[in-house]
Design a protein that fits this description.
The chain contains 5 helices and 12 strands. By secondary structure, it is of the alpha+beta class. The protein has 2 domains: about 5-120, no CATH class; about 150-245, no CATH class. The strands form 4 sheets. The protein has a 4-stranded mixed sheet, with no helix packed on it. A 3-stranded antiparallel sheet has the order 4-5-6, with no helix packed on it. Strand 8 (about 205-210) and strand 9 form a beta hairpin. Helix 2 packs antiparallel against helix 3, helix 2 (about 20-35) crosses helix 5 and helix 4 (about 80-95) runs antiparallel to helix 5. The longest helix has 21 residues, at about 45-65. The radius of gyration is 19 Å and the shape is globular. The protein starts with a helix and ends with a strand.
């Protein structure tokens, strides 16, 4: 994912909680566009599941955008029409930064116009209807399991307690956007250290009202802890616990 680095930093400031979800949406849009008219080896349509993934990611985008102040945090009153319009505004900024994803943005323009027309006419959009609330679970199960998290000082692993400081990693876009692990990291005996960590594996910090939110690396449930320099998480569902640097 080729990017305008200066522009990407501006997006980090503008969309601190929704950035990773909007980035995921761009990837989902690309996948959906490439699966138009395609079928699996068993004859199943590949487009419909890809489009469903877009709808699932839109829900995550809505939660992040609410935390960033672009949508109401009274989740039960957020309509699908509001979500589409707000995401469209955000993607108009993102397309200036992620210029190497033209197919994804072209597909969004076409898909958005079609779905927005349906929503504005109050016709049900898949399982959602603009005449009803676009109901959001404030503590959702994540669509992705994030084993890594981003910190001010580097990236950390929620399962192994491995932490890679900023001077031990380097940004790269090959094989995809993420971090290349440099040989400067001191490897402890028996410790497994990856050579590359993709952005899709890393969770951006979500901070709201003094609480740090992070998905459990085992079950995917969104957990929260006091936002400190070193925060302690204990998952209420699977009981996994971990420490996370802010």
């Amino acid at each position: 994912m080729g990017t305008n680095k200066q522009g990407e930093q501006a997006l980090v400031v503008a969309y601190p909680n929704s950035l990773r979800h909007l980035q995921q949406l761009i990837m989902d849009l690309e996948t959906c566009a490439k699966n138009i008219g395609k079928k699996t080896l068993f004859g199943n349509d590949k487009f419909k599941p890809a489009e469903q993934k877009i709808l699932e990611t839109l829900k995550s985008c809505a939660i992040g955008l609410a935390l960033d102040g672009y949508l109401s945090q009274d989740y039960g009153k957020v309509s699908m029409g509001q979500v589409l319009a707000t995401v469209n505004t955000a993607l108009n900024e993102f397309r200036l930064v992620y210029g190497n994803w033209p197919l994804a943005f072209y597909f969004w323009d076409v898909w958005y116009e079609q779905q927005n027309s349906i929503v504005n006419n109050n016709i049900p959009l898949k399982q959602y209807d603009d005449t009803k609330s676009f109901v959001l679970d404030p503590t959702p199960v994540s669509n992705n399991i994030f084993y890594w998290y981003e910190s001010e000082f580097g990236i950390g692993n929620k399962l192994t307690k491995l932490f890679l400081y900023s001077h031990e990693i380097q940004r790269t876009d090959s094989p995809s956007l993420g971090y290349k692990v440099l040989h400067t990291h001191p490897r402890e005996q028996g410790q497994s250290v990856p050579s590359f960590v993709s952005d899709t594996e890393i969770e951006k910090p979500l901070v709201s009202r003094g609480q740090l939110e992070s998905t459990c690396p085992k079950c995917g449930v969104m957990c929260s802890a006091q936002a400190d320099a070193l925060s302690y998480f204990s998952c209420g569902k699977c009981k996994h616990n971990w420490w996370q640097r802010l």
